[in-house]
Design brief:
The protein has 349 residues and is an alpha/beta fold. The chain has two domains: 113 residues, no CATH class; 218 residues, 3-Layer(aba) Sandwich (Rossmann fold). The protein is built from eleven helices and 13 strands. Helix 4 crosses helix 9 and helix 6 packs parallel to helix 7. The model has no long low-confidence stretch (mean pLDDT 84).
């Protein structure tokens, strides 16, 4: 497993383009001064071997020195030892609605982004629990099976978008069934399903699927995203640019509203609760408390317990580039002239 011990130092890489810009400005300034001087020919004869390419090569070496020094500060590490540790927690399958109505902007920046923010913070609040991810619109798709790797869950979450869904709709029932298929039936009392949706344009059988899951011991909580007043749905052209809001055949703006009644029925059938998510921080504790009510179970998980530092390789290359830069001069024949001069002195002696 690969990781960076101090990734914050990567921001220092901005020093390289800043240095190159300053070097270029300095070079242009000196060139303009020399070309505008009345003694330009004299200066050229005094410095006949000054190499422009050698100057830029030394600048490149200096940039490499900076880059590898920053690499040493970041300290890349490679996991060298796997250890199986015992953890205790529950399994939570997060089912996220990716229908177009989730792009409504009654919550800023929109419902989907607010849902993603909520999920990310929830993952931080439940480090010992295992999580999975299902996305749904007209159909449901398993994005990530239940796992203790929350970093992977955040990566999958970041990539999901309504544009990935081939058919529209709100197939909550299908998402519940897919979550049940992904669970281990022997541990249903330690499992929960979180459905995050606005509940609009839902397909049938959602309540029936929730009731079947509840009878097996799986708890279903529904999280409503959106407002009761609703908002228009953004319209985009073929290039992805915003072009106002969608309208129906009569030219009237389409308004998408939260459907708390349906989501409440699903939660009740699944022996869970309905939460109207408006404030990410405030509602977080309520959802976390509901999940904490479930009995956790012990499970084994392999984690990397030891890492090998690789900063020494970066230090070695940084010193190498620095040494080469120190030995070079801006003259195109620096080394050869110096060597020839020493040979002539030895022959004279």
């Amino acid at each position: 497993m690969f990781r960076l011990e101090n990734p914050i130092y990567l921001q220092l890489l901005w020093l390289i383009p800043i240095f190159l810009l300053l070097f270029w400005l300095s070079w242009r300034w000196r060139k303009r001064i020399l070309n505008g001087s009345d003694n330009a020919d004299l200066i050229s004869r005094l410095m006949p071997d000054r190499s422009r390419s050698r100057m830029w090569f030394r600048a490149a070496l200096f940039c490499l020195t900076i880059a590898f020094t920053i690499g040493a500060l970041v300290n890349p590490q490679i996991g060298s030892k796997l250890e199986r540790v015992e953890r205790s927690g529950i399994d939570v399958m997060i089912c996220l609605d990716l229908s177009m109505s989730m792009l409504a902007e009654d919550l800023q920046p929109n419902r989907l982004e607010r849902a993603k923010q909520f999920i990310n913070r929830l993952l931080d609040e439940m480090p010992e629990d295992r999580v999975g991810l299902i996305v749904f619109a007209g159909h449901a798709y398993l994005q990530m099976p239940v796992s203790a790797d929350h970093s992977a869950a955040k990566l999958f979450l970041k990539a999901v978008d309504p544009g990935l869904m081939s058919t529209q709709g709100t197939a909550i029932g299908e998402a519940i069934q897919m979550a049940m298929d992904a669970f281990d039936e022997e541990n249903n009392k330690h499992q929960a399903i979180l459905i995050i949706s606005d509940g609009e344009d839902h397909e049938g059988e959602a309540v029936e699927a929730a009731q079947a899951a509840g009878e097996k011991g799986v708890v279903i909580h529904t999280l409503g995203i959106g407002s009761l007043e609703g908002a228009g749905l953004p319209a985009f052209d073929m290039f992805g640019r915003r072009r106002g809001n969608k309208v129906n055949n009569k030219g009237q703006e389409i308004i998408s509203k939260l459907n708390p009644a349906m989501l409440g029925e699903v939660a009740t059938a699944g022996n869970g609760r309905f939460f109207h998510i408006q404030d990410v921080r405030g509602d977080m504790q309520a959802v976390k408390s509901a999940l904490s009510a479930l009995e956790g179970r012990k499970y084994g998980d392999q984690v990397v317990s030891d890492y090998d530092d690789k900063y020494q390789y970066f230090i070695a290359f940084a010193l190498l580039f620095l040494l080469i830069d120190m030995l070079l001069t801006d003259r195109s024949k620096g080394w050869s002239d110096r060597f020839r001069f020493e040979q002539e002195q030895e022959q004279t002696v």
